[in-house]
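Why this split exists: single-chain examples teach little about how molecules sit against one another. For that reason, every record in the complexes split bundles all components of an assembly together and asks for one structure covering all of them. Below is a record exactly as it appears in the raw files.
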Amino acid sequence: MKRMLSWAAIAVGVVYFFLPLVGMLEFSLKMRRGEYSLDAYRSVMGDPQFQATFGYSVLMACLTIVFGVLVVVPTVFWVRLKLPRLRPFMEFITLLPLVIPPIVIVFGYIRLFNTSSWLPLTGSALGTDFLLMCGYAVLALPYMYRAVDTGLAAIDLGTLTEAAQSLGAGWITILARVILPNVLVAVLSGAFLTFAIVIGEYVFAALLDRPAFGPYLVWAGGNKAYEPAALAVITFALTWACMALIQLATKFSKHTRMPR
Amino acid sequence: MAYLDLNGLQKSFGANQVVKSFDLGIEKGEFVSLLGPSGCGKTTVLRMVAGFEAPSSGVIRIDGQDVTALRPNQRNIGMVFQAYALFPNLNVAQNVGFGLKIAGVPAAEITARVAEMLAMIGLPEMGARYPFQLSGGQQQRVALARALAPRPRVLLLDEPLSALDAKIRVSLRAEIRDIQRKLGITTIFVTHDQEEALSMSDRVVVMNGGRAEQVGAPFEIYNHPATRFVAQFVGTLNTLDGVVTDAALGEVTVQGQSLRLPQPIAAAQGATVGLALRPEVVHLEADAAQISRGDFALPAKIAAVQFLGAVIRVKADTAAGAISLDLFNRPDAPPPPLGAEVALRFRGQDVIVLG
Amino acid sequence: MRTSRLWRALPWNGLGVLPFALFALLFLLLPTANIVAGAFVDGSGDFTLVNIANLFTPEIMNAFWLSIRLSFTSALIGCALGFAIALAVVLGGLPAWVRGVVMTFSGVTSNFAGVPLAFAYVATLGRVGFVTLLLRDWFGVNIYALGFNMISFWGLVAAYVFFQIPLMVLIITPAIDGLKREWREAAEVLGATGGQYWRMVALPVLGPSLLGTLALLFANAFGAVATAIALTGSLLSIAPILLFNQIRGDVLQDPHLGYALAFAMIVITGISNGVYVVMRTRAERWIK
């Protein structure tokens, strides 16, 4: 009885989730009349707009990851080591991007960094790109911070640092050669999640008016019939890949941490 | 028939038979421990009595009533778990009153009974506290009160002390036994700690591999273990080999010296039998010259001395192997130095023959 | 000596968090503060409550009310279905692999929101969508003839639920794991039926987690823009789309009304997140 109900719950979930995915896949294959084909994918791939925006978003994702790691890892390390009293405060700050809707944050950017402000970032394309990257880093902050924080919680930070210092290492060396390798898995998890968030992001890119993949998606949705489904399939596959890589990284870490 | 009667209980999980033909009768008001290493089936027996596991075969009777097919909530049994298992959303009074509330007892009566139970466990002021505000020992006492409040027919204790600090464990032992005696409630206590089992129980059931190896009073179990397993699992034991010289008279030789055991030996003449000695029956003779010819004495050399307070545990090497023995601490007699040549003596009637 | 003491008294340790502090200040706190402050000043920079008062027009109130209903309904449905799935996975006696598959799948689908989700939805329930055609050709049911419309309240709810369920599964599963088997057994031995155990112990224990997650799902849906825009082309007047259009420079004339809109959104998501945090703290206090 209980097991039947459980299977029923799972079945409802399967139907609810697989229908749209199957629908999306089926639809993306229907571009040629009367038979299934990859025409929609061919059309998408051949679109220079797709290539440009997709490339732009991948680049932004990578830059965001690097920037996020550079900002988050040293900070988490320092707070855990020297300023543990700041931790609740950090928790709060890094939770804020989940509380404040992204559209409000980007609204603030537009007002704060407009061409007539003290820091006119939106005045140039490069400045806006930088602003967009920072925005993405803010969006990813809750995930990145938590991933790294749990990663650092697992190692004895104080002892490792003192050991490295006693061997003559400086702060940069400690961070790069001792801390980072130990939280690499956590950082990787955060990185892939960041990638999944950034790649299809719409609101920031649209309101800052940058040629990213998200606005292209919306444009395609309004102007094309079968390509959007193909684009959705591609994005879904990318999300799967990111999650699979996170799982892989976690497995790898369990392997390396096995006691001998 | 006994008050609580377990008859031919068996339990298999798949191909793995964890309890094999288990029989036990417990009298009303008796405190019986199931003692054994992990995986011996003691917890499974307890869970079958509670009704969480259905026996593969066999019958469980309480006060003559066959409860084998009853669900746990129909058996009127009290149970205390290792991890307290207090309901975290209810305060102490609500926890203790839970069973009464389920049974539909009027609120005023519940209040009175809860107060009575809290007074009994020595926490009369704690009714409004929540479990997370209590220490481990307090939580376990509340769990005991909760189990006893509905006046169950049988009380089951599943390693209730293992999660606690050593000191609280010892004091709670006495407290549980006290309450059990006062209420006269029939109790099964599951533990892997032989000291707990021996100190608390009317009878101890030593279990191994899904069977009861021996059932008996603590004194009986400790001094007259029925099997090699019981002898080795309960208490510390020294083992020696002896060669049978006269099976009917119970005579063996150990290291060429003759020893007379209290009972006949079930082995052929010339056969080697395992002999066991508790550390407290071995006497240490510091001066080898004191031993007259003809007395049984093993020459030995002191290998280790452990000062435990009231007792000093000494390890001595003999030609027959290492032997541990216990000396009482006496301020005027310091323990022998390491490497000292001594003699070990023991009486034939203190020797346990291992089957 | 004096300079050296002063030198040492300076909070040098604070320097380590300076880059982060600068980052958070510039790109998170100041922009938000700017919006909040803007909601309370007029064109010439004087304090005023007029902007807030201006929110109380039928158009804006309707948009917020629609947003709230949409977020709440999708959160409630997501909560219920996600809870059922999580229960099935943890306590339903299903094979162990089911759990792994469900959790991984939830991880993916909870991140598969926004524009692509809208596309998948259109491809499924649009006028020539997979399910629409399936129902028409196999069962002779034309859902559009029956009055179904994707760009409607329930259409959007159905789309939102798609990312609400997996989020619920991800958050509530650890809480269900926290229900100890002994609680159930203790209740049973004390005479409780399965229903009594759930009513008196399990649900009260899970209560804070359930309520907290509901609040989180609500905030999650309330701030979501991309799915709605891709689906409705900013036709449906919900609060975030209203703000989006305002930022884009159409619809509303008064820029300070935009600040007030954003401020109201922060207040609503802030409250629901506050509920989440408080509830989570309560849940964690019980289950140590």
